[in-house]
Amino acid sequence: MRDWLSHRVVSSPDHTALIRAEDGEAWTYTDLDRLVDETAGRLVAHGIEADDRLGVLTPPYVGTVGLVHAAMRIGATFVPLGQELTERELGERVERADLDAVVCAEPTEDAALGAVEECDGRSVPVLSVDDPAAEGVTAVHGLDPESIDPPDWDDSDYLCILFTSGTTGNPKPVPLTAGNVYSSAVASAFRLGVDQGDRWLVSLSLHHMGGLAPVYRSALYGTTLVLREGFNPGGTADDIDTYDVTGISLVPTMLKRMLDRRGTLSDTLRVVLLGGAPASDELLEHCRDYSIPVYPTYGMTEAASQIATGTPRQTSDRLGTVGRSLFGTDVTIVDEDGSPVEDGEAGEIVIDGPTVTPGYIPGPQEQSEPPCADADDGDEESDGGAGGESDDGDEESD
């Protein structure tokens, strides 16, 4: 299969693909495809090719969405980098992911240059989507686009590489294959549903899977992505009203700030995917009282985002649940010996299924170690977290 956008533009050429929240400018799938084709051609002119790893350190611009799809069109692996990181932290990620180039923008140019300077023994080119202000940075638009022969993607090809949060150690690079991300999109659609008129507001950073997943999924589903460059409680709530947004991903603190500001949210919403941390009973009760369609979810980078997701009805019946595992994903709670526990008992959570990464990319001192110590042929992952299963099969995560 070619890149997903090239298939979508044939099916839905005139459907709105993307709306920029700041000014309401919209792009159809035909418009987005042209942008992606031009971007991909310019990257190829700069030497980016299939199997390269493309680091991207840009704000959530429309052009950043273009880079996501352009990398896939070339056959390169997309590696988003967080703007909040220090130059040293960025340099470590450039090294660990073995990047072939870093794309930046005017606000992130200095950080990108500092990051590649942290790399020992090799030169990593820095390209900018804006006009460069410093030596050592090359404008992406400085070369004319070259023609591209888009490759076919296999399920096992690395689509993107993201980093773990590092809360239990150094951040690890997590490769997600085309098959991982595709399977996650299908399973999520089975749980949340998809409507052609859906509009998903991206409120999370694109270097987290919760922010990146909607970019891929909107092209697969043929729905509309609404993009804002940064989160603020009032502005995000206003965007939902202004653009008839039907879906949004949030962490509990973000949702609480929006409700503290507005009290409730627009009734155009049919999905508020709530994850990243447990939500308080008070927050969930507020959502229930105001008919806000909250879908609490448990996920992890290593499983391409969602693992289990609860419906508003399940949440109303049992506060704290994250529902049942998604289609194709097996969740097992095991004891210290690795044996499944009885219903209602706590233990370690083990995930198995087609969304699970084939394994961490090993570091220099880890070459002799399996990429993922808890993997079984690359399909099983232990998150090291505690959890439990209720008597009727719903997951409850601590």
What secondary-structure arrangement, pairings included, does this model have?
Layout lengths: L3 H8 L4 E5 L5 E3 H17 L7 E5 L4 H13 L2 E4 L6 H10 L4 E4 L4 H9 L8 E3 L8 E3 L18 E6 L9 E5 H15 L6 E4 L6 H13 L2 E4 L5 H10 L4 E4 L1 H11 L8 E4 L6 H9 L4 E7 L4 E5 L2 H6 L6 E2 L4 E5 L11 E7 L27 E10 L5 E3 L1
Parallel strand pairs: 1-11, 3-4, 3-5, 5-6, 6-7, 10-11, 10-12, 12-13, 13-14
Antiparallel strand pairs: 1-2, 8-9, 14-15, 15-16, 17-18, 18-19, 19-20
GO molecular function: ligase activity
Pfam families: AMP-binding
Protein name: AMP-dependent synthetase and ligase
CATH superfamily of the largest domain: ANL, N-terminal domain
Widest beta sheet: strand line-up: 2-1-11-10-12-13-14-15-16
How widely separated are the two ends?
A: 39 Å
Which bin fits the share of residues in helices?
25-40%
Radius of gyration over C-alpha positions, nearest whole angstrom: 21 Å
Structural class, by secondary structure, is alpha/beta
CATH architecture of the largest domain: 3-Layer(aba) Sandwich
The number of domains is 2
Q: List segments where confidence is low: pLDDT < 50 over at least 5 consecutive residues.
A: 368-380, 382-388
Number of strands: 20
Instruction: Kindly report the CATH topology of the largest domain.
Output: Rossmann fold
Shape field: globular
Largest β sheet strand count, sense and barrel closure: 9 strands, mixed
* Total DSSP helices: 11
- The CATH class label of the largest domain is Alpha Beta
Mean pLDDT rating: 91
